[in-house]
Amino acid sequence: TSRMNEIKDMLLGVVEPISDSYNYLASNNNIKEIQVSLGIKLDLEGNFILAKSTIGANISVELKLGKNHDW
Predict the structure, then answer these.
(1) What is the C-alpha to C-alpha distance for residues 23 and 29, in angstroms, rounded to an integer?
(2) What is this structure's pTM?
(3) What does the pLDDT profile of the chain (71 residues) look like in tens digits?
C-alpha cells in the first residue's frame, strides 16, 4: 500500500545517514558498542473514508568508543 511505502521511505531516510555516519566513524575510531532505538507512530482517523493520517518517528543513537586495549 502507499502508506507502507511512505513508512519504508521514512525508515530509509533515517537509517541511511546512520549507516553512513557509522562507516565514517568506524574508519577513524574503535567503536565498542552501538545502540539504535527507532520508534514509529502511525495514526489513522475516519470511518469508511480515511479522513486523517499522520506518521511520526523518533530515533536515538548511542555510540561507545574505546581504544584497542579496551576490547
Answers:
(1) 10
(2) 0.51
(3) 677 787 788 788 878 888 888 888 888 778 888 888 878 777 777 776 767 777 777 788 887 877 655 54
Cα 38 from Cα 10, distance rounded (Å):
11
Q: Give buried/exposed letters for 19-54 (b at 16+ CB in 10 A, else e).
A: eeeeeeeeeeeeeeeeeeeeeeeeeeeeeeeeeeee
Q: Grid cell 513508512 — which residue?
A: 7
Cα angle vertex 40, ends 45, 35, to 5°? 170
Picking from 64, 2, 56, 5, the residue whose alpha carbon sits closest to that of residue 33 is 64
